[in-house]
Amino acid sequence: MAEATIVQVSHFEAVLLRVARFMVGQAPAEEGLSLIRDVCPRPACLSAAAMALVRETISHGCVRWLVHAGGWRNERFLYEGTGRTGRLWERHPPESLALNFSRHSLEMLLWLTAHRPTDAFRLETVDAATVTPADRLLFLLIYQAVRDERDIAQVIRGLTGVADNALCRLLYAGEFAADGITAPVDFARWLQPDAAPILEAMQPVFESRWIEIEQAKGQQPDWMAMRRQGEAEQATLSAFLDALEQGGRRDLARFMLTAYGRLLRSPDISAQWWLSELQGSGPARLAERLEIQRLALAFLRQAERLQAWERQAREAGFFDDDYAAGKFWLGEWERWDAGTMVPRALAIVRSLEPLRPADE
Amino acid sequence: MSRAYRITVKEGLTRDLQACDEICTNLEVLQILPPEQMADLLKEELEKRGFEEKDGSLTRTANGVTVRVDPASGEVSVKAELEDKVDLKAERDDWSYDDVGPGEDAIRRRLQEQIRQDLERRAGAQQSQLQNEATEKLEAQLNEVRKELSQAVNRVTAEALKKKAASLGQIKEMTEDVESGSLTITVEV
């Protein structure tokens, strides 16, 4: 039996590898956070062995994360316009599942290792033309790893590559909005063959996160914070659904149907569940109070679009190009009881309208 | 021996105040007939209720609240507007050892600034009060407007159903209970 090769790395490279492992969830948070809060002077260059280990760590770590997130599930998604069933690696050819990291990933890890994020030295701007979906996935994992450290999280949110990261904004729109980060993000890029599998694997992550977001709204006492969050969510979800519609990947909105199913299980649920903690009488003008209440239901308001997709799918003829995709959407609609949940969501949205019919 | 002089400053503030509050929403009108016909039916019904056409919309003002409906799109706005005028005066005085000169000027300027701030604060309080009144007026009217528009939409829906039924065949029987809002039409096709 061949002996395992022991690779020698420098002190800095060892710290870099520990930071990388922490970011992909392979090291304890206490250790990782203390390394990030420390400073380790960066050498002029890294050894080839260290570079290979870093690449291996983030590649394996991201793949492991995606598999755990939902890639392992035997699921149905659209592939080239028709439904395909299987685990993530059974639905897609291997070449489209490769995670290609650019230098931006390494630069981010080097910066986190060499500097304290809260210090003045800032990471260079990420070039949107060369940053890859794999880089953006790693940046999401980095943000998630440090999210509970408020000072570090705020710095990370402001970095290019994170601020304009569609995954981060779809999961944490409110947190970015609190920092004034509301510029539009490009969701269309995520429908390309090298990125769409990531969205497929992350469906359970999106579902859980949006349920968490909606549950937290019931504890939000600040009207202005609710407004900022609602505006950001409305803009982000609207842009996301626009991209899915134009890109023929409505199946990637499945997490919204499953989230509605869990949130709206009780027929007695009302808008008060979202609005009960808004303190005092709020802004002086009724117009502003009503607008903020409407924005608080930004996630439920998207149900109108999903219902329109269902209508379009039912009306599609079998000669239409998107007939198969429409049938797929109808299958999802029935599978997740959207015929019950979506009207329930829309009824809650309508209940806020001051001029709703008198018998409602 | 130095003397103390009393310096008195008087200022006034006159301002027109305006406050308004408005909600905008959409009427849910079932498209039983083509949109233009539904819009005409809605227009007729609202005109019976005292609405007047203005720039393509139907408007009615009562008790300081204006309701505007676009029959084509179903957009509704309900707006309360109030106006008021404030005429505030204030006076402050202080003591100086100089009746003229830089010491007296400084005290006069300080007193003027204090009075202006006080007048602005009082005007601001009046503006807030006026805004609260506008919002209360809007809230007080909303329920009545809601009931009335709901009745109007029900009438429009009933009329549209009658026209639709007539276009399908011969109406054999029609029973309408205006109080409960039920309508039964028997059509021979």
Overview of the molecule:
The complex is a heterodimer of chains A (360) and B (189). Chain A contains 19 helices and two strands. Chain A has 360 residues and is mainly alpha-helical. Chain A has two domains: 7-188, no CATH class; 202-360, no CATH class. Chain A has a two-stranded antiparallel sheet. In chain A, helix 1 crosses helix 2 (29-36), helix 1 (11-23) crosses helix 6 and helix 13 (254-263) packs across helix 19 (338-350). Chain A is globular, with a radius of gyration of 22 Å. With 189 residues, chain B is α+β, with helices and mostly antiparallel strands. Chain B has two helices and seven strands, in the order E-H-E-E-E-E-H-E-E. In chain B, the strands form two sheets. A five-stranded antiparallel beta sheet of chain B has the order 1-5-4-3-2, with helices on one face. A two-stranded antiparallel sheet of chain B has the order 6-7. The longest helix of chain B is centred in the last third of the chain and has 67 residues, at 102-168. Chain B starts with a strand and ends with a strand. The mean pLDDT of chain B is 88. The chains are: A mainly alpha (360), B alpha+beta (189).
What topology emerges from the helices and strands here?
The complex is a heterodimer of chains A (360) and B (189).
Chain A: H1 11-23, H2 29-36, H3 48-71, E1 75-79, E2 82-86, H4 88-91, H5 94-97, H6 103-114, H7 133-146, H8 150-157, H9 166-178, H10 196-201, H11 203-217, H12 223-247, H13 254-263, H14 272-275, H15 286-296, H16 298-301, H17 303-315, H18 323-335, H19 338-350
Antiparallel strand pairs in A: 1-2
Helix pairs in contact in A: 1-2, 1-3, 1-6, 9-12, 11-13, 12-15, 13-19, 17-18, 17-19
Chain B: E1 5-26, H1 35-48, E2 52-54, E3 57-62, E4 65-69, E5 75-96, H2 102-168, E6 170-177, E7 182-188
Antiparallel strand pairs in B: 1-5, 2-3, 3-4, 4-5, 6-7
Helix pairs in contact in B: 1-2
